[in-house]
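User: Modeling request: complex.
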Amino acid sequence: MVETTLDETHEIQLKSWVESANQPEGDFPIQNLPMGVFEQPGDRGAPSIGVAIGDLILDLSGCGAAGLLDIVAPAISQACTARSLQGLMALGPAPLSELRLHLSRTLRAHQPNSNENSQGALPHLIERSKVRMLLPCQIGDYSDFYASIHHAANVGKLFRPDNPLLPNYKYVPIGYHGRASSIVPSGTPVRRPYGQIKVDHAETPSFGPTASLDYELEVGFFNGAMNPLGSPVPIDEAESHIFGLCLVNDWSARDIQAWEYQPLGPFLGKSFATSISPWIVTLDALAPFRVASASRPESDPPPLPYLSSPRDRAKGAFDVRLEVLLSSHRMRESGIEPVSLGRANLRDLYWTPAQLLAHHTSNGCNLRPGDLLASGTVSGAPETSKGSLLELTERGRKPITLPGGEVRSFLADRDEVIMRAHCERPGFARIGFGECRGVVLPAENGVG
Amino acid sequence: MVETTLDETHEIQLKSWVESANQPEGDFPIQNLPMGVFEQPGDRGAPSIGVAIGDLILDLSGCGAAGLLDIVAPAISQACTARSLQGLMALGPAPLSELRLHLSRTLRAHQPNSNENSQGALPHLIERSKVRMLLPCQIGDYSDFYASIHHAANVGKLFRPDNPLLPNYKYVPIGYHGRASSIVPSGTPVRRPYGQIKVDHAETPSFGPTASLDYELEVGFFNGAMNPLGSPVPIDEAESHIFGLCLVNDWSARDIQAWEYQPLGPFLGKSFATSISPWIVTLDALAPFRVASASRPESDPPPLPYLSSPRDRAKGAFDVRLEVLLSSHRMRESGIEPVSLGRANLRDLYWTPAQLLAHHTSNGCNLRPGDLLASGTVSGAPETSKGSLLELTERGRKPITLPGGEVRSFLADRDEVIMRAHCERPGFARIGFGECRGVVLPAENGVG
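Assistant: Request completed. Predicted assembly structure:
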């Protein structure tokens, strides 16, 4: 695990001259500075890298062209003017920290450490509400894990009540390859997919729209610096390969998945869409929120040596509060606020991100800048901490009632799923992730 | 399925003025013209697209710069000068056929239909033995299927003797997402991977080099023109999205795979390396070798409508003869030729490539130019038609003896696996695939 030192960028008393960044419940104070890629409406410009600050975005491409990034190493300022975060990701953690410090000084309200770029930055601030957020980079490969033991147990219980956890669970960070091409940024509507479905009483399957569309509340980790093919990343170096975190909704069609997944795992039940939140919260911003994993009891088998380190054990997890909400079409029409369906915490994963990454590379598999690793559904022990409808409604057997009286076993057309996350800790600024949103569109153009 | 008409480029009497293309047993006669990307030694040039002809490569980048491609549409000649086949793939089948006809006329020995570019092409021919073949394109996503019913039954029998085929097999073209980053071109050595292994009598797993490294004899299909997210490709259009075929060795660590694969499928048991042959044989070249699938008896359930079409049933399969050979270090030292371990035919797949592609997109999943779909291990019904050591040695229980006396349950260090394929049919030129090779390197730098 990389040293996650706290520096001046974390100080709670720091304020920005961007006033909207100083609201106590905001996601993007000056202590956060998450990175993303945006596009302005019309043809005003190509996609640019931006940093969220309050309600605004600092356009790094514009800053670079104006010479405002000259103080950082040329490799960094050059990477800031690209159309994707890939170049910055590839540089590894030290340059990113250098950039963060510079941006923090540029955006902070005048103090001795502020720098002279503040005034120059003014023309490169854009309202967040006026841009379109894109994927932060080209995602080469997407791997999805199964790192929440509560989720694994909840799901296992539905199928094997006496023996919910498989024998490998406490040894292997279980994961599978997901589909990269269908990852979309928050706000992209998701079409209800067709697929082969075999209902319980039927002799044969039929082809039609899924009747059990679900969300999965997950957190993604973008890979930063690559490791060459054949070169595993040791557990203590794994975090230096993680660029930052985002929210992931791993949309799932449970009926398609149930019929197809033996013996090679999920495929079309997942690959129709995966949504991610557009702002990547860096490991530097999350440094104050590092904790021990909360879900591995002392009595469990210790991780094998290649997944074990004292530092990872002490602070390998992230204290990030997650929430998933639902808003139906009728709720929106009636002015009813989205209803919370579950709250979970990322610290409740059985495996830390460093363990997931070390495991992923332990066979020599190469991870490239921009590759995405996701946690798998994050659920907690309480009933109120379930990260999917599959768990919440027990496979549809116990439907839930929404405010306004509608009932849901699984998602209905025009339902909007909203995911949010933030970190909080006394003595530190609140760090938010923004939102991951997606509306379900009715099925269309089936080919059957 | 797209119309696969035979035109002048398929005529058996066509000869090339490149003499080595006219040998009857050669892989690359003028009727083939497979495409790949190569690099010349030193820094003489960037990667170029080339077409194999006999022992030579026609450098399309050089041809384009010299104006020799001016006769084809500008979009085509421009795509020929790229460093990757992605651009050509994106254009779809008609431009590719136009290019093929032009190249055939350029390279054929003088006949009325030859064109005037023949002499101009001479300076753009390079010896194949002097270049390094690269991946043909950036592979965005790699999906691997399980389309050989003989393979599925052979493997199933090892684990469930009474019930080898799962209930979904004859309805769902089973597949999973593979790892794109670790796909390497033929000739790249493959390092024996470390991983978690639980031997049968042990209470807990340990971390070490795989003791059951295997090959899988497969064929890959490169996606050409993309389909947008949310837009399934109907079965009758599926072939217009397939650019061409290559050989795939889906290296597998059976012990790692056995311990990790429940419940989400293969992951690190596969993702350490996948080798592909560098020459993509186009669908045009394969037009004379289209046949009905040979492995679906009339008594089996018919494919669901979205996987069914009269044309696909009549000619959806490819009559491609596959072979996998092994050469141990000691065999090479002793001058013993590689030994054939299995011969199979691509027509024996239960599902056609068009069915695999239509199924893959049936949930709206988007396939991009350069995405790779693979067949899964191709095995046939006879004992001599097994495409993996897992099947051949029955999980190591029945080791095989190599010429020279060595014994193999699975692959040993320094073993070289060689895959070859070709098509033959009376009245048509032999169409070869070249080779997919890889040597096993000893395990190294485990992190445990």
